[in-house]
């Protein structure tokens, strides 16, 4: 049993972080109850409680026991910005939540946000597949899903995103062939497909894209996809592609172009 200043009595078997007791917060009941935190009201006192699970209960001598408020699950659907976009899709031009610790699959509702020009959900804990409905976001210029745990084939519908200049899908668990439809993204400067499980040859259609950036890394990044093999389309310059960790080769080398054996 731990008693905070201000009359908050906590009953739990878990450790309690009392570094900031109730005295650090003041105000009435309406100002403390917040499902996004463990700050809650006991009478006219705000109490900060950091406990372990949804069975933890605190009591107050005057009002008895109450269940500790738990933060909502950190999903895309529960994200406040996503909810605001759904409520007013015509005003939603960007949805950015990188490094947000989002733990969920991607809702199909993303495909209804047709005014989006930026959709950036990189470096989270997203799982599942890319919804084909993303192909409806035909105003997108930037699409980031990098550094997650998404695992599916890449929907061919992404080829409809003609304005896109940056498409980052690297460091996930995408598999299967790279869609030929990505060759329709004729404005793309950075196409990041590295660190996945793509298989097959590099579509010749990707050679039709003339806007890839050049440099040390290149605009077309397919590295660390051991299942990719064959000849790199001749229209792609060596400064435009990064393909280490694959079985791809230039036509002028003696590197085997057959499917890699396991």
Structure description:
It contains 1 helix and 19 strands. The longest helix is centred in the first third of the chain and has 8 residues, at 80-87. Helix content is 3%, strand content 23%. By secondary structure, the protein is mainly beta. The strands form 5 sheets. The protein has a 7-stranded parallel beta sheet. Strands 1-2-5-6 form a 4-stranded antiparallel beta sheet, with no helix packed on it. It has one helix at residues 80-87; strands spanning 2-4, 8-11, 39-42, 45-48, 57-60, 64-67, 94-96, 118-120, 127-128, 142-144, 149-150, 166-168, 175-176, 190-192, 197-200, 220-221, 227-231, 241-242, 247-249.
**Helix and strand run:** EEEEEEHEEEEEEEEEEEEE
Which parts are unreliable, with pLDDT below 50 for 5 consecutive residues or more? 1-70
In order across it, which strands form the biggest sheet? Answer: 7-8-10-12-14-16-18
* Residue share in β-strands: 15-25%
Which short descriptors sum up this protein?
single chain; mainly beta; 1 helix; 19 strands; disordered N terminus
In summary, what is this structure?
The chain is mainly beta and about 260 residues long. Helices cover about 5% and strands about 25% of the residues.
């Amino acid at each position: 049993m731990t008693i905070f200043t201000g009359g908050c009595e906590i009953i739990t078997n878990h450790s309690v972080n009392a570094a900031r007791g109730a005295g650090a917060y003041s105000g009435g009941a309406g100002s403390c109850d917040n499902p996004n935190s463990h700050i809650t009201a006991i009478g006219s006192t705000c109490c900060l409680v950091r406990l372990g699970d949804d069975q933890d209960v605190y009591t107050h001598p005057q009002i008895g026991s109450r269940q500790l408020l738990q933060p909502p699950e950190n999903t895309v659907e529960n994200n406040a910005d996503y909810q605001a976009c759904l409520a007013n899709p015509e005003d939603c031009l960007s949805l950015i939540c990188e490094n947000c610790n989002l733990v969920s699959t991607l809702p199909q509702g993303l495909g209804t946000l047709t005014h989006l020009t930026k959709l950036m959900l990189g470096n989270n804990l997203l799982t599942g597949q890319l919804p084909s409905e993303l192909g409806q976001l035909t105003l997108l210029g930037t699409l980031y899903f990098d550094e997650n745990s998404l695992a599916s084939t890449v929907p061919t519908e992404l080829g409809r995103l003609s304005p896109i200049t940056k498409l980052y899908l690297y460091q996930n668990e995408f598999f299967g062939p790279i869609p030929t439809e990505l060759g329709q993204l004729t404005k793309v400067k950075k196409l990041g497909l590295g660190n996945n499980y793509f298989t097959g040859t590099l579509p010749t259609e990707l050679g039709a894209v003339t806007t890839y950036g050049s440099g040390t890394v290149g605009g077309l990044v397919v590295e660390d996809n051991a299942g990719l093999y064959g000849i790199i389309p001749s229209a792609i310059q060596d400064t435009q592609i990064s393909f280490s960790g694959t079985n791809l080769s230039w036509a002028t080398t003696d590197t085997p172009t057959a499917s890699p054996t396991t």
